[in-house]
């Protein structure tokens, strides 16, 4: 069975080609869910690598036009940028350094939860809404 192509696949190829020309060693990270098993962690960027001469880490998140970063993605990239890593957000038209990222691509903190998460938060007495609350046996 042939897998369908992700809309971001051409972006991965462009970014990896740019990395090769720019003196980086980079690879596609393939984080996410596969067969019900989480690979990597939430917020892991699409492409990871390092600069051949300086050794500085590289992280690239690819987004098709109109998509925003998820909260976990933005927070990971911000921590990496603050740690002096190369951080880019790659789009169909251009790429951005994290500090130059337009507001239209930044996460909306109140809209990133799924419908199930919002439902559990509204349900009174639901222990899933508060993970720190003791559960009754």
Write a structural description.
The model is unreliable at 126-135 (pLDDT under 50). The protein has a single domain (9-122), classed as 3-Layer(aba) Sandwich (Trna Endonuclease, Chain: A, domain 1), CATH 3.40.1350. The protein starts with 8 loop residues before the first helix and ends in a 15-residue tail after the last helix. Helices cover 24% and strands 22% of the residues. The protein is built from three helices and seven strands; from the N terminus they run αβββββαββα. It has helices at residues 9-21, 71-82, 115-122; strands spanning 24-28, 32-34, 37-39, 47-51, 57-62, 86-90, 95-97. The chain has 137 residues and is an alpha+beta fold. It is globular, with a radius of gyration of 18 Å. The chain has a five-stranded mixed sheet with strand order 1-4-5-6-7, with helices on both faces. A hairpin with a 5-residue loop joins strand 4 (47-51) and strand 5 (57-62).
List the helices and strands and how they pair.
Blueprint: H1 9-21, E1 24-28, E2 32-34, E3 37-39, E4 47-51, E5 57-62, H2 71-82, E6 86-90, E7 95-97, H3 115-122
Parallel strand pairs: 5-6
Antiparallel strand pairs: 1-4, 2-3, 4-5, 6-7
- Strand arrangement within the widest β-sheet reads 1-4-5-6-7
CATH uppermost class: Alpha Beta
Shape estimate: globular
What's the number of domains?
Answer: 1
Number of helices: 3
Residue share in helix: 10-25%
Task: Please give the oligomerization state of what you see.
Answer: single chain
Number of strand elements: 7
Give the CA-CA distance, first to last residue: 45 Å
Q: Strand-residue fraction?
A: 15-25%
CATH architecture: 3-Layer(aba) Sandwich
Determine the mean pLDDT: 81
